[in-house]
Amino acid sequence: MALAVRTKYEFFGPPGATAIVFGLPVLLWTLFFGCNDVSGCPAPALLSPRDLTWAKLKSEIPWPENGVRGFVSWEVTFWTFAYYFLSLVLHRVMPAQEVVGTKLRDSGRPLTYRFNAFNASVVQLIACAFGTYLQGADFVVWKFMTDNYLQLLTTNILLAYAISIWVYAKSFSVKPGNPELRELAQGGHTGNVIYDFYIGRELNPRVTWPFFGEIDVKTFLEMRPGLTGWILLNCANIAKQYRNYGFVSDSILFTTAVQAYYVLEGQYMETGILTMMDITTDGLGFMLTFGDIAWLPFLYSTQTRYLSTYPVTLGPAGLAIVSAVFATGLYIFRSSNSQKNLFRRDPNHPSVKNLSYIQTKRGTRLLTAGWWGMSRHINYFGDWLQASPFSLPTGIAGYMILPAGSAVAEAGATMVDGRQVIQGAARGWGMLFTYLYVVYFAVLLIHREGRDDVACSEKYGEDWEKYKKAVKYKILPFMPLRQNHAQDPRPSPIGQPMLLYQLPKVTRKVEYNDPESMMRTYSDKATDSGNTVGRAFCANCGSPVRGDSSKFPGFLIVPVGCLDGSDADKADLRPTAEYFCLSKAAWLPGLEGTEKVDLGPAMNYS
């Protein structure tokens, strides 16, 4: 009798997939109606749930006159398709970088990708800048986007469904053996229709059209229409704020600027996506399609949509704070990724050659020092930190819109048509809308870390367990203690914690000479190791021995080998020494300049 194979589901399996497929579009519509330019953010009726009626709520939101049929229009559908057609044309005609991706699992052969998203975005933004120069805030593109926001949102949602259905149906034509370099995603063909539709069945669906050539659908959607559309929506909201008030606030300019930088830098470094889980592991289904062309541009632009109706002035101090947060996050994100990529490409580079690592049986080296000694996904922390200023300029969000001529005691903003915008009872409640992105992004990164952990555990086996013992923290970085008698959070080779003692801020030559312990000794001649702490143990049995130095109080003396048992003659005595650099916050490998020292009659320090 055959044993049943248990399918490994993510996102709470088919029930979770069903909830996401049908629930997230509703959430986007709810965000649009709930935070609006008709009555407030949130709509005042939502603040009094006991008295809430559909008729009352409908009067306070931009509900179409013809009801649900007004969610779409032929005009908006036409121009949406024209936008995607333009993206395809630019993909074909703009100068591009041809890049070979990672090898496919089944065939062992890679696919070739065409990247020029950055060039395409620059062309579109220059064209819109020229249009703004000619027509100002009334530029036809900006007015069209803000006046038809609901219809644009709905059209992209429906397009996401259509593409997802198409790639799902197309996936059943994948032939065994991968003769066409097509294969199914490992987790995307469980046999459950709704789950496979959501998670993505085919790994790398492609289509070949006349003139356009071969198009990788997943990378096209990942890097083009949604990301560029995010910037365009933000620019449209800036124009809307100017039409509403006759000025542009520093908060909306800052938010648009940092988000545009985030997008354009990502597109400029477009080749980096080839090693991301989205490309190497996940199939193309509703999850990625909806996320790329509907969720990303319309959720991520919520902050500028809010600021277009309620302008917030940050001032020099506020700008300095949010800029510092963004710069810090950006530095952590880019520096950590650069360090990892450099280590992979050139492990002997001076900036990374002294970083410790775990050599896996697969041949891969896992960094355990530098940025990657702080946490396993320090880049995720940087990514979230640099994204938090997207929401911070909205402050303690929430506003109410009062008719022109209303007598109000609270200071607020007055639109050019006379309407008053104050915070009132809505203060704080608007954060449910403007900070949703930051919360969602944190959940996304935490979930992704979990997926990475499972994938790496399957990939590296026991080496991954060793790595997790060496790097204890997942995302939030561990800040090394710089006080005496700090306990090393990592277990020693025999499972007991080892003690660290801080040395004076000079590198000392240390010699361990104890023939009775049959110990081999080394002298540290390095001059750039910083403030170091010595750690030594027997490579054969992993036994550490601790003592104290009368000459250098607080220094860790580790004469190893004396715990190798009574049969010392047969013991393979290869003691090792490691040094922890407090300035670099990392365990260092064997330092250059160390040399073997002959055994002497006693311990000697110089």
UniProtKB/TrEMBL annotation:
Signal peptide: none annotated. It is found in: Membrane. Pfam families: ERG4_ERG24 (PF01222), GFA (PF04828). Residues 511-581 form the CENP-V/GFA domain. The keyword Hydrolase does not apply. One of its GO terms (molecular function) is carbon-sulfur lyase activity. GO terms for biological process: ergosterol biosynthetic process. It is a multi-pass membrane protein. GO terms for cellular component: endoplasmic reticulum membrane. The chain crosses the membrane at residues 12-32, 76-94, 115-134, 149-169, 283-300, 312-333, 429-447. Keywords: Lipid biosynthesis, Lipid metabolism, Membrane, Metal-binding, Oxidoreductase, Steroid biosynthesis, Steroid metabolism, Sterol biosynthesis, Sterol metabolism, Transmembrane, Transmembrane helix, Zinc. Belongs to the Gfa family. Belongs to the ERG4/ERG24 family. This is Delta(14)-sterol reductase. It comes from Pyricularia oryzae (strain Y34).
